[in-house]
């Protein structure tokens, strides 16, 4: 069971990072957002998918 949860987390993290790198923001912003999502595990993924996904471009104008 733990392995399945771990794999789901890794897949969601990869999808989130790929989505971040598609956003029209600078490379430093992409690296910062990606690092935050990857370093904060499930909390970072939840914040990204529930709130930050729609607001990242506003934050890094």
Q: What is the element layout, followed by pairings?
A:
Elements (H helix, E strand, L loop, with lengths): L1 H21 L4 H13 L1 H10 L5 H4 L2
Helix pairs in contact: 1-2, 1-3, 2-3
- Name the overall outline: elongated
Q: Percentage of helical residues?
A: over 70%
Strand content: under 5%
Largest beta-sheet characterization: none
Unreliable parts: none
Structural class: mainly alpha
Query: Could you state the order of secondary-structure elements as H and E?
Result: HHHH
Number of strands: 0
- The domain count comes to 1
Overall radius of gyration: 12 Å
Mean pLDDT score:
93
The separation of the N and C termini measures 42 Å
**Total count of helical runs of at least 4 residues:** 4
Question: Describe it for me?
Answer:
- This protein has helices at 2-22, 27-39, 41-50, 56-59.
- It has 61 residues and is mainly alpha-helical.
- The chain has one domain.
- The longest helix has 21 residues, at 2-22.
- The protein starts with a helix and ends with a helix.
- The mean pLDDT is 93.
């Amino acid at each position: 069971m733990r392995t399945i949860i771990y794999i789901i987390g890794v897949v969601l993290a990869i999808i989130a990072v790929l989505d971040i790198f598609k956003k029209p923001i600078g490379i430093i912003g992409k690296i910062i957002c990606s690092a935050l999502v990857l370093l904060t595990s499930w909390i970072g993924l939840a914040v990204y998918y529930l709130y930050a996904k729609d607001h990242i471009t506003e934050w890094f104008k």
